[in-house]
Design brief:
- The chain has 2 helices and 67 strands.
- By secondary structure, it is mainly beta.
- Among the domains are: 152 residues, no CATH class; 96 residues, Immunoglobulin-like (Sandwich).
- β65 and β66 form a beta hairpin.
- It is rod-shaped, with a radius of gyration of 41 Å.
- The N terminus is likely disordered.
Length: 615
């Protein structure tokens, strides 16, 4: 008991002493008020209510009614800061460093302005008025209220160490050519935007955010009105999440390099400007529609599990990098997908094209090992390639729209390694000539497990001065395995040819000229005066309707035109018997027969030819 009592005896005086010390410390904290309505120097003692410059333990109150400027040139540390009040419209100009140990408040009528040498450090700063950040350094937490305004105007460098929570207006207006806000310490600083963050860098200017995480919340709007907002960061760091509105005006650019940025639920993209991905990763976690331009550069990557839609009038420009997502990339009607440069391009998702897909320059699109990639050219979609050898490696291609291989008057070639499918609505337009003769406009021949599925229309144009001979076999689609057939084949500006599906080093599709085995002879009955006729024996099966129309034939006997009275088609023998007027033929007559718009069973035109028949 004695020991316990002795302990309490010593403990009680110590507690009392502690309370007394704490009370004395609190008593030392005082509010020091500005008292010069004309403004003046922070370091002038007579400008303060105590007749002394505020010290470490003082709360500074610049709340004197009136409009005036207070200039701080040298470094100071104070306990607290209040700027602005009833009828008080002061401006505190920081040309030096001001450290606030606790809270700072800029009331709605107050203004704090930082110049090139200015620094403001505070645990928490409430900005209900105006904070002009022309240059210098902000450190701590800055809460911009709905009445507050943070202005980072002018072409200069700024440093943020801490967090800006913006519920009001954050304006970054600079005339160019460059301006920046950066973080020179680890970890990243943070901008949480719940209000309006506006960037205007001039027509050719660039404003750069470096190592600052940007979270644009559901009530926030990030608006790039002119110039470029460049966001830089570390590749393995998150650069923030967007749940709000991103507005990029036409002609303006929002560019991202390094780090990972996520477009999450609630993301709404407006404006006709450009989202440029020149590094790092963009994750599309919720469906997003872009009305302007998306640019994917060689060091950048898209990812995520939701659809990225390019709206009518918009563009997706792919110069390199990785499209890597479980959600599709949808090029909507009226939009464009433009692919250029020879940099490598990796596709690990599905592209659905209902607009215009332009593939320029020699290049390859490949899927990563074990990944699935598909390009669907949908009904109404147009897919254009340049007159070069393009390649899809481990990428399936499905054509229900229009596929144009080669430029105007020039041949092109598309190589694949897995699957090419053309459906009934698909149209394949190929130019054959030059270096691509004999190799196929579409080729999968080097891959034993590749498959071609055919339907729809094939249109072939011979270019570059190439004209096939009657015995030529011109390869159009080269493959190992196939199913189906083109429902219609048209030879544009050339002689009539027909498709033949045959095995050759596997299976290949070729265009074969009409065989010279067509034989045109007079029948045995043509000598009879009552039953004059000419029989044409064809090697192919003809379309019965066109072959049986006498208007499609003309006959000359000894140079004189003779009327064709009838045309009878025999589907078994592939022969056409032309009935002439009685007495039209005599022994020894020279007969010339021509035909026009006669079609075969696949609706291909059998060219109008002539042959002399000696009867």
């Amino acid at each position: 008991m004695f020991k316990i009592w002795k302990f309490r005896k010593w403990c009680l005086p110590l507690a009392v002493v502690g309370i007394a010390l704490a009370g004395r410390s609190a008593a030392q904290a005082a509010t020091v008020s500005w008292n010069n309505p004309a403004g003046g120097d922070f370091d002038e003692p007579k400008n303060w209510s105590t007749g002394a410059v505020p010290g470490n333990a003082d709360v500074v109150a610049i709340t004197l009614p009136g409009t005036y400027d207070v200039k701080l040139t040298f470094g100071h540390t104070v306990a607290g800061l209040v700027v602005g009040g009833t009828n008080a419209r002061p401006t505190l100009n920081l040309n030096g460093a001001l450290t606030v140990s606790n809270a700072a408040t800029i009331n709605p009528t107050g203004t704090v302005a930082l110049t090139f040498a200015g620094t403001l450090t505070a645990k928490t700063t409430t900005v209900a008025g105006t904070l002009n950040w022309a240059a210098g350094r902000l450190k701590g937490i800055y809460n911009v209220t709905t009445t507050g305004q943070l202005n980072a105007n002018g072409a200069s460098q700024r440093t943020l160490v801490g967090t800006i929570n913006n519920s009001g207006k954050f304006n970054w207006i600079s005339p160019g050519p460059s301006s920046s806000i950066g973080k020179d310490e680890i970890p990243f600083s943070t901008l949480n935007n719940r209000g309006i963050f506006t960037v205007a860098a001039g027509a050719k200017g660039t404003d750069t955010l470096s190592n600052i995480q940007i979270n644009n919340t559901s009530t926030g709007t990030l608006s790039v009105q002119s110039g470029t907002l460049q966001i830089n960061g570390d590749n393995d760091k998150s650069q923030g999440i967007n749940n709000g509105t991103i507005n990029v005006a036409t002609g303006a650019i929002l560019a991202k390099a390094g780090g990972t940025y996520t477009l999450s639920g609630g993301t709404h993209v407006t404006g006709g400007g450009t989202l440029r991905l020149n590094g790092g990763k963009l994750i599309v976690a919720s469906p997003v529609t872009v009305p302007g331009i998306v640019e994917l550069d060689p060091l950048a990557e898209t990812d995520g599990g939701a659809a990225l839609n390019i709206a009518s009038g918009g563009k997706f420009n792919w110069t390199g990098g990785v499209i890597n997502s479980t959600g599709p990339l949808n090029i909507l009607k009226g939009a464009q997908f433009n692919m250029s440069t020879s940099f490598g391009k990796t596709l690990n998702t599905t592209i659905n094209n209902s607009g215009i897909f332009n593939w320029k320059d020699f290049q390859e699109i490949s899927a990563s090992t074990g990944r699935k990639a598909v390009i669907n050219n949908l009904v109404g979609g147009v897919f254009n390639t340049e007159p070069v050898n393009e390649t899809l490696a481990d990428v399936d291609f499905n054509n229900a729209g229009t596929l144009n291989l080669g430029g105007s008057g020039k041949a092109g070639r598309l190589g694949l390694s897995t699957l090419f499918t053309q459906s009934a609505t698909g149209v394949l337009n190929v130019n054959i000539g030059g270096d691509f003769v004999g190799f196929g406009a579409i080729s999968l021949a080097g891959y034993p497990n590749s498959v071609v599925r055919l339907a729809g229309t094939l249109n072939v144009t011979f270019v570059g001065g190439f004209t096939p001979k009657p015995t030529d076999s011109v390869k159009v689609v080269w493959y190992r395995n196939y199913s189906g057939a083109f429902s219609k084949v048209n030879i544009i500006g050339g002689r009539a040819m027909r498709p033949v599906y045959t095995a050759h080093d596997g299976v290949s599709l070729r265009l074969i000229g009409l065989r010279p085995a067509y034989k045109i002879t007079a029948s045995k009955t043509t000598a009879q005066a009552v039953a004059d006729s000419v029989q044409l024996d064809f090697s192919d099966v003809l379309d019965a309707a066109s072959a049986s129309d006498p208007a499609h034939y003309s006959v000359e006997v000894n140079g004189r035109s003779v009327a064709v009275q009838s045309a009878g088609y025999n589907a078994v023998t592939h022969s056409v018997t032309l009935g002439l007027n009685p007495g039209a033929l005599q022994a020894g007559d020279e007969v010339v027969v021509r035909w026009n718009d006669v079609r075969d069973e696949q609706n291909n035109i059998v060219a109008g030819q002539q042959s002399n028949i000696a009867k």
